[in-house]
Structure formats: C-alpha cells, structure tokens
C-alpha cells in the first residue's frame, strides 16, 4: 500500500544574528545567507556595513547539515529550501521572516534586503509576498527564481531599482546567468541595475561599501 503523507505544523527554535541597536537605528538590513552558510558567516562578510544608525538582521536557515571539509573535519551549514514539499517550505519561510522582522525591526526603520547566493531566491520571494515595505533589494551572486513575477517585483520595490551583483570570476553562478536575469526583467519593465566586480562567489568589500553609504 502506498503511504499517505500529511502536513503537520510544528514550532521550533530559529537562530537569528543581530548587530546594532534598534533604538539608535534609522535603517535595517535583512541579510540572507547562501547555501551551506550560517548567520555568523554572512554577518562576517557584512562587517563593512556596520554603522551606529544601522541594524543588521541575519536569520539562519532552518535546515542544518554537516559539510565535509576533510577526512577528519566537518563543518555545519544551513539551507533555506529544497524542491521537496516546496509550497509548504515557502510558506514556512515567509512566516519565519515575517515574524523575525516584526519582532526585531521597528516599523519606523527603513528596510533593505540583501540576499547572497541561495539567499537571493529567499529575499526575492519574501519581498514580493510580505506586507512589510522594502526600500531596496540587493541580490548578490544568485539567480532570480522563475516564480517571482516581474510585476510583483515592481510593486514590491516601488521606485528603487533592483540591484543584481555578480563577480566576473564567479564559477558557481556565471555572470552570464545574472546578465540574462537582468535582460529578462528589464524587458518586462523592471528597473534593474547590474553590478559586476573583479572577484568570485562572495560579497565584495568595495561593492558593499557603495551600498553601505
């Protein structure tokens, strides 16, 4: 007999990295890590964005796993979503980020979203599905998911361009893939700014500084 699969909603602990004080901040950045990273890893890359009037929030993906570094060492990484049971995973993800922002980021703060690699799809989907106003979306080294409609991006971002960033030597996400996303979305009426830096699959310090002013 074939098994029947049912969905059960459960509560669990989520880890969120926070840098800064909401009492002195006027701006908040929601920072979404890539596949196999943890919150502390992505926050290390964003140290150049730290400022007294800026709050950095880095939620961690809820699915952790071991990654092999060598025969004797293993690291821990996290993932946001897979294609398995995708609809429910995306809904859980939206609720998680909605709650994190509602509890940690006062409504008076301007909100920017930065997604890296797998975090690009997380950030783009959340921006187009949340009721929270988003001032800027910056997509680092990650492809735009096909289920994010151009019209939804235009509505979510208002007058601010969509920023797509990629290193010219990125071997995981080829620059041509990001260029194709920029062309496709631009043709659909999205105001897109494509940024390239000399480097690979990471958050570039110089490029970050241009967003952190």
Structure description:
The chain is α/β, with parallel strands linked by helices. The chain has a single domain (16-211), classed as Rossmann fold, CATH 3.40.50. Helix content is 31%, strand content 24%. The chain has six helices and nine strands. It has helices spanning 39-45, 86-104, 118-129, 150-157, 175-187, 205-211; strands spanning 16-19, 27-32, 54-59, 63-68, 74-79, 110-116, 136-140, 162-167, 192-197. A seven-stranded mixed sheet has the order 1-3-2-6-7-8-9, sandwiched between helices. Strand 8 (162-167), helix 5 (175-187) and strand 9 form a beta-alpha-beta unit. Helix 2 (86-104) crosses helix 3 (118-129) and helix 3 crosses helix 4 (150-157). The longest helix has 19 residues, at 86-104. It is globular, with a radius of gyration of 17 Å. The relative contact order is 0.14.
What is the fold's blueprint, element by element?
Layout: E1 16-19, E2 27-32, H1 39-45, E3 54-59, E4 63-68, E5 74-79, H2 86-104, E6 110-116, H3 118-129, E7 136-140, H4 150-157, E8 162-167, H5 175-187, E9 192-197, H6 205-211
